[in-house]
Amino acid sequence: MDALTAALKVAASGLGAQSERMRVVSENLANAQSTGSTPGADPYRRKTISFISELDRASGGSMVEINSIAQDPADFPVEFQPGNQAADEKGYVKMPNVNVLVEMADMTEANRSYEANLQVVKQARDLISMTIDLMRNQS
């Protein structure tokens, strides 16, 4: 496998990984205020994603793979909301362990990584096109 095709495969694995990361972050943001439905019930628990590097023997490139999508074991913050359906007998509601600022920072980082991988794909595609054009002109 040539180096340009290997670069495309590596960048494609990065695009897939960052796309999944953005999906997880989006889910966390969408549920940042999702409390339980009964008094004292646990709310939405933040999800985390981790990656692992896998060697692709065919290309010799190091691919990004999803290692796991897990739940964040951090404690749930509580808020005093006596009118909420999820409030306990003292009026406290367990809130999701989602920090919107952390999620937004993670989304920004995932977006930048996605864009960087997309640039690699564009550059490799341009180089492949240039190579094909050179080969045509030599004929």
UniProtKB/TrEMBL annotation:
Q: Is Transferase among this UniProt entry's keywords?
A: no
Domain Flagellar basal-body/hook protein C-terminal span(s) in chain numbering = 90-133
Q: Where is the Flagellar basal body rod protein N-terminal domain?
A: 8-35
Q: Name one Pfam family in it.
A: Flg_bb_rod
Q: Which family does the entry's similarity section mention?
A: Belongs to the flagella basal body rod proteins family.
Which PANTHER family has this protein been placed in? FLAGELLAR BASAL-BODY ROD PROTEIN FLGC (PTHR30435:SF2), FLAGELLAR PROTEIN (PTHR30435)
**Quaternary structure annotation from Swiss-Prot or TrEMBL:** The basal body constitutes a major portion of the flagellar organelle and consists of four rings (L,P,S, and M) mounted on a central rod. The rod consists of about 26 subunits of FlgG in the distal portion, and FlgB, FlgC and FlgF are thought to build up the proximal portion of the rod with about 6 subunits each.
Q: What is this protein called?
A: Flagellar basal-body rod protein FlgC
Q: Which organism is it from?
A: Mesorhizobium retamae
